[in-house]
Amino acid sequence: GMPAIFRSLFIVDSEFDILGYLNNEKQSRIDSLILNLQKTENLPEASKILADVQKEKSFYGRGKLEILSFNHSSPAIRKAIFKFLKIVEAEIM
């Protein structure tokens, strides 16, 4: 019945933040993280940012990360982004 439907929606929302996605909060957080990643030259900081992106559980921003994996000024950070994208891709499969 209805309680089961709402409980299911609550569980999905708590896991994936569907409401945050619908009201654009999630996209704004990811955009901010990617902007910070573009600006950093510090590999540990970049790794933390990538972990935060992964916590968002979203494909939003993946294209920007792919471009950044070729264009970032730091070779170490480019490599970290590339590895991150490969891990995310492997989790999907």
Topology:
Layout lengths: L1 H15 L1 H5 L2 H15 L3 H13 L6 H10 L3 H18 L1
Helix pairs in contact: 3-4, 4-6, 5-6
Overall description:
- There is one protein chain.
- The chain has 93 residues and is mainly alpha-helical.
- The protein has six helices and no strands.
- Helix 3 runs antiparallel to helix 4 (43-55), helix 4 (43-55) runs parallel beside helix 6 and helix 5 runs antiparallel to helix 6 (75-92).
- The radius of gyration is 16 Å and the shape is elongated.
- It starts with a helix and ends with a helix.
Offer a quick outline of the entry.
The protein is mainly α and 93 residues long. The chain is built from 6 helices and no strands. Helix 3 (25-39) runs antiparallel to helix 4.
Structural key phrases:
single chain, 93 residues, mainly alpha, 6 helices, 82% helix
